[in-house]
Amino acid sequence: MEEAVLCRSPSEIRELFAILICTCGLSNPLQLWDKYKVALSEDILHRFEKMDQVNNDLCLNEALIHIEDKIIRISGKKLSDFDTQVSETEPCLLPEQKDIYNKILQRVELEKIRKNRNVELAVASSGIAATFLSGGSTAHSVFKLPLNLASEETPTCNMSKNSARGALLQQCKLIVWNECTMSHKRAIEALDRCLQDIQNNPKLMGGVVVLLAGDFR
Known about the structure:
Strands 2-1-3-4 form a 4-stranded parallel sheet. The protein has helices spanning 2-7, 10-23, 29-40, 42-50, 56-75, 83-89, 95-108, 110-115, 127-130, 139-143, 164-170, 185-199; strands at 119-124, 137-138, 172-178, 209-212. By secondary structure, it is an alpha/beta fold. It is an enzyme of class 5 (isomerase). Its cofactor is Mg(2+). InterPro entries: DNA_helicase_pif1-like_DEAD, P-loop_NTPase.
Protein backbone atom coordinates (compact mmCIF):
# COMPACT_ATOMS: atom_id res chain seq x y z
CA MET A 1 0.00 0.00 0.00
CA GLU A 2 2.78 2.41 0.88
CA GLU A 3 4.36 2.10 -2.56
CA ALA A 4 1.01 2.20 -4.36
CA VAL A 5 0.10 5.50 -2.69
CA LEU A 6 3.17 7.11 -4.25
CA CYS A 7 2.55 6.11 -7.85
CA ARG A 8 -1.01 4.84 -8.31
CA SER A 9 -4.37 6.55 -8.74
CA PRO A 10 -6.96 6.47 -5.93
CA SER A 11 -9.07 4.03 -7.96
CA GLU A 12 -6.11 1.66 -8.32
CA ILE A 13 -5.33 1.97 -4.62
CA ARG A 14 -8.93 1.07 -3.78
CA GLU A 15 -8.62 -1.95 -6.07
CA LEU A 16 -5.49 -3.04 -4.22
CA PHE A 17 -7.16 -2.51 -0.85
CA ALA A 18 -10.08 -4.70 -1.93
CA ILE A 19 -7.70 -7.41 -3.14
CA LEU A 20 -5.83 -7.36 0.16
CA ILE A 21 -9.07 -7.79 2.11
CA CYS A 22 -10.26 -10.63 -0.13
CA THR A 23 -7.05 -12.61 -0.42
CA CYS A 24 -4.63 -11.74 2.37
CA GLY A 25 -6.70 -12.26 5.52
CA LEU A 26 -5.79 -8.89 7.00
CA SER A 27 -5.71 -9.01 10.78
CA ASN A 28 -6.53 -5.32 11.14
CA PRO A 29 -8.09 -3.87 7.96
CA LEU A 30 -9.39 -0.85 9.84
CA GLN A 31 -5.87 0.17 10.80
CA LEU A 32 -4.88 0.01 7.14
CA TRP A 33 -7.97 2.01 6.17
CA ASP A 34 -7.26 4.68 8.78
CA LYS A 35 -3.68 4.99 7.55
CA TYR A 36 -4.52 5.37 3.86
CA LYS A 37 -8.11 6.65 3.79
CA VAL A 38 -7.02 10.06 2.48
CA ALA A 39 -5.24 8.48 -0.49
CA LEU A 40 -8.14 6.08 -1.03
CA SER A 41 -10.62 8.94 -1.34
CA GLU A 42 -8.48 11.71 -2.85
CA ASP A 43 -10.22 11.77 -6.25
CA ILE A 44 -13.64 11.87 -4.61
CA LEU A 45 -12.57 14.80 -2.43
CA HIS A 46 -11.39 16.71 -5.51
CA ARG A 47 -14.76 16.16 -7.18
CA PHE A 48 -16.59 17.49 -4.13
CA GLU A 49 -14.25 20.49 -3.99
CA LYS A 50 -15.12 21.38 -7.59
CA MET A 51 -18.79 21.43 -6.59
CA ASP A 52 -18.00 23.49 -3.45
CA GLN A 53 -19.67 20.78 -1.39
CA VAL A 54 -16.79 19.36 0.61
CA ASN A 55 -17.90 16.82 3.20
CA ASN A 56 -15.20 14.49 4.49
CA ASP A 57 -17.66 11.93 5.81
CA LEU A 58 -19.43 11.67 2.46
CA CYS A 59 -16.10 11.39 0.64
CA LEU A 60 -14.89 8.56 2.85
CA ASN A 61 -18.28 6.89 2.67
CA GLU A 62 -18.24 6.93 -1.13
CA ALA A 63 -14.72 5.49 -1.13
CA LEU A 64 -15.93 2.62 1.07
CA ILE A 65 -18.84 2.01 -1.28
CA HIS A 66 -16.43 1.73 -4.21
CA ILE A 67 -14.23 -0.64 -2.21
CA GLU A 68 -17.16 -2.89 -1.29
CA ASP A 69 -18.27 -2.97 -4.93
CA LYS A 70 -14.78 -4.15 -5.88
CA ILE A 71 -14.83 -6.78 -3.13
CA ILE A 72 -18.17 -8.08 -4.40
CA ARG A 73 -16.79 -8.23 -7.94
CA ILE A 74 -13.61 -10.04 -6.85
CA SER A 75 -15.01 -12.52 -4.34
CA GLY A 76 -18.78 -12.40 -4.62
CA LYS A 77 -18.85 -11.50 -0.92
CA LYS A 78 -19.74 -8.39 1.03
CA LEU A 79 -17.61 -6.69 3.64
CA SER A 80 -19.81 -8.23 6.31
CA ASP A 81 -18.75 -11.71 5.11
CA PHE A 82 -15.20 -11.11 6.32
CA ASP A 83 -14.99 -11.95 10.03
CA THR A 84 -11.89 -9.83 10.50
CA GLN A 85 -13.92 -6.74 9.65
CA VAL A 86 -16.44 -7.42 12.38
CA SER A 87 -13.94 -8.25 15.08
CA GLU A 88 -11.87 -5.18 14.38
CA THR A 89 -14.71 -2.67 14.00
CA GLU A 90 -16.64 -3.54 17.14
CA PRO A 91 -14.11 -1.91 19.52
CA CYS A 92 -14.56 1.40 17.65
CA LEU A 93 -17.94 1.87 19.32
CA LEU A 94 -17.98 3.69 22.63
CA PRO A 95 -19.51 1.62 25.46
CA GLU A 96 -22.62 3.83 25.48
CA GLN A 97 -22.97 3.57 21.70
CA LYS A 98 -22.59 -0.20 21.72
CA ASP A 99 -25.19 -0.54 24.46
CA ILE A 100 -27.70 1.60 22.55
CA TYR A 101 -26.93 -0.27 19.34
CA ASN A 102 -27.56 -3.66 20.96
CA LYS A 103 -30.82 -2.44 22.49
CA ILE A 104 -32.05 -1.23 19.10
CA LEU A 105 -31.28 -4.57 17.47
CA GLN A 106 -33.03 -6.43 20.28
CA ARG A 107 -36.05 -4.17 20.00
CA VAL A 108 -36.57 -4.59 16.27
CA GLU A 109 -35.82 -8.33 16.46
CA LEU A 110 -34.51 -8.71 12.95
CA GLU A 111 -34.04 -12.42 13.26
CA LYS A 112 -37.59 -12.92 14.50
CA ILE A 113 -38.93 -11.09 11.48
CA ARG A 114 -36.87 -13.30 9.19
CA LYS A 115 -38.02 -16.48 10.90
CA ASN A 116 -41.62 -15.42 10.34
CA ARG A 117 -40.73 -15.25 6.64
CA ASN A 118 -41.37 -11.54 6.49
CA VAL A 119 -38.98 -9.47 4.42
CA GLU A 120 -36.71 -7.04 6.24
CA LEU A 121 -33.66 -5.20 4.99
CA ALA A 122 -30.67 -4.23 7.11
CA VAL A 123 -28.47 -1.62 5.47
CA ALA A 124 -25.80 0.87 6.47
CA SER A 125 -24.27 3.94 4.90
CA SER A 126 -20.82 2.34 4.65
CA GLY A 127 -19.42 -1.13 4.21
CA ILE A 128 -17.76 -0.97 7.61
CA ALA A 129 -21.01 -0.08 9.37
CA ALA A 130 -22.83 -2.82 7.45
CA THR A 131 -20.71 -5.44 9.18
CA PHE A 132 -22.58 -4.75 12.42
CA LEU A 133 -25.89 -5.88 10.93
CA SER A 134 -26.79 -9.51 10.38
CA GLY A 135 -27.01 -9.92 6.61
CA GLY A 136 -26.38 -6.21 6.20
CA SER A 137 -25.18 -4.43 3.08
CA THR A 138 -24.66 -0.84 2.01
CA ALA A 139 -27.69 1.34 1.36
CA HIS A 140 -26.25 2.35 -2.00
CA SER A 141 -26.03 -1.23 -3.24
CA VAL A 142 -29.42 -2.33 -1.89
CA PHE A 143 -31.42 0.72 -2.96
CA LYS A 144 -29.40 1.43 -6.12
CA LEU A 145 -28.74 4.98 -5.00
CA PRO A 146 -26.73 7.28 -7.29
CA LEU A 147 -23.24 8.18 -6.11
CA ASN A 148 -23.56 11.84 -7.10
CA LEU A 149 -26.32 12.64 -4.61
CA ALA A 150 -24.95 16.06 -3.80
CA SER A 151 -25.18 17.24 -7.41
CA GLU A 152 -28.71 15.99 -8.13
CA GLU A 153 -31.70 18.04 -7.02
CA THR A 154 -34.12 15.11 -6.86
CA PRO A 155 -32.12 11.86 -7.05
CA THR A 156 -33.96 8.59 -7.52
CA CYS A 157 -33.19 4.94 -6.88
CA ASN A 158 -32.17 3.10 -10.02
CA MET A 159 -34.87 0.44 -9.89
CA SER A 160 -38.46 -0.06 -10.99
CA LYS A 161 -41.38 -1.77 -9.30
CA ASN A 162 -41.23 -4.48 -11.99
CA SER A 163 -37.61 -5.37 -11.24
CA ALA A 164 -36.50 -8.14 -8.89
CA ARG A 165 -35.30 -5.56 -6.37
CA GLY A 166 -38.58 -3.69 -6.69
CA ALA A 167 -40.54 -6.88 -6.03
CA LEU A 168 -38.44 -7.44 -2.90
CA LEU A 169 -39.21 -3.96 -1.60
CA GLN A 170 -42.92 -4.50 -2.25
CA GLN A 171 -42.82 -7.34 0.29
CA CYS A 172 -40.61 -5.49 2.75
CA LYS A 173 -42.00 -4.95 6.27
CA LEU A 174 -39.02 -3.24 7.90
CA ILE A 175 -35.88 -1.39 6.85
CA VAL A 176 -33.08 -0.73 9.34
CA TRP A 177 -30.61 1.90 8.13
CA ASN A 178 -27.55 2.04 10.37
CA GLU A 179 -25.31 5.14 10.40
CA CYS A 180 -27.83 6.98 8.23
CA THR A 181 -26.30 10.28 9.33
CA MET A 182 -23.23 9.45 7.23
CA SER A 183 -25.35 9.63 4.09
CA HIS A 184 -26.54 12.73 2.28
CA LYS A 185 -30.10 13.70 3.17
CA ARG A 186 -31.06 13.23 -0.47
CA ALA A 187 -30.34 9.52 -0.14
CA ILE A 188 -33.19 9.22 2.36
CA GLU A 189 -35.39 11.43 0.19
CA ALA A 190 -34.65 9.18 -2.81
CA LEU A 191 -35.62 6.10 -0.81
CA ASP A 192 -38.85 7.81 0.26
CA ARG A 193 -39.81 8.52 -3.36
CA CYS A 194 -38.85 5.00 -4.40
CA LEU A 195 -40.91 3.30 -1.69
CA GLN A 196 -43.94 5.49 -2.36
CA ASP A 197 -43.78 4.47 -6.02
CA ILE A 198 -43.13 0.77 -5.44
CA GLN A 199 -45.72 0.45 -2.67
CA ASN A 200 -48.26 2.61 -4.52
CA ASN A 201 -48.64 4.45 -1.23
CA PRO A 202 -48.24 8.25 -0.84
CA LYS A 203 -47.45 7.92 2.87
CA LEU A 204 -43.94 8.57 4.19
CA MET A 205 -41.64 5.77 3.01
CA GLY A 206 -44.61 4.19 1.27
CA GLY A 207 -45.94 3.05 4.63
CA VAL A 208 -42.89 0.84 5.27
CA VAL A 209 -41.41 1.01 8.77
CA VAL A 210 -37.92 2.51 8.44
CA LEU A 211 -35.64 2.67 11.48
CA LEU A 212 -32.92 5.28 11.05
CA ALA A 213 -29.95 4.87 13.38
CA GLY A 214 -26.88 7.06 13.71
CA ASP A 215 -25.24 9.91 15.56
CA PHE A 216 -27.84 12.69 15.48
CA ARG A 217 -25.92 15.10 17.69
